[in-house]
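Page header: ASSEMBLY MODEL / two components / 205 residues total.
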Amino acid sequence: MNVSGCDDVLLVKGAHSFLLVASVRKDFPLCIETSHEEYYQGVHAGDLVVVSAPEAGPVEPALMLLELVRTYHLPLVVLPRDHPGSKRIPYVVSVAPVIQTSCSIERGTHPEQHLVCSSDELAGLTVSRTGRDITISPLPATLTREWVKSMEHR
Amino acid sequence: MCSVGGPTDIDLPEDRVVAKDYRCKECGERFKGIGKHPMCPSCQSEDVAEI
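Prediction written out in full:
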């Protein structure tokens, strides 16, 4: 499915979870902070930012998170496995030209594989961009999509 | 960014991260880059060399 209208944010909803998808507007180095190291990933205009809410919750904080990364280029902070704070994080973020959703990411996965954690119902999607279109493939009939205004346009 | 083991666990297994050391040819900044198009965090130049 192709969706046009890249000035705003695409909301893909299932019954119990959602994704936000938006395009990056300009190039920037994305900083990724871990407990031991600092990495930089080159992000380019047209790349995608996906915020996944595997357990749903309100959309507005996810929109804020999206803009903190896309517009304000805040670093991503990565918690080590089994960190006690992990269970309090309702949203996860991925930034890449093509992003795949998965509910069963295996150990050993690394950022270059462009995966973002999702719920079961949103797993198996590939999100990409062609021109001004955002492509989601496949898009099961159980999911809905709509454009929502970014925080900048509210 | 990937997530492992559950819907809200965030994990970046550093022993498997394919990061390379780069030096920016424009400003001399050294950094660890991931992905196909490393970019200098200091001046945002893509004119970088692997070291």
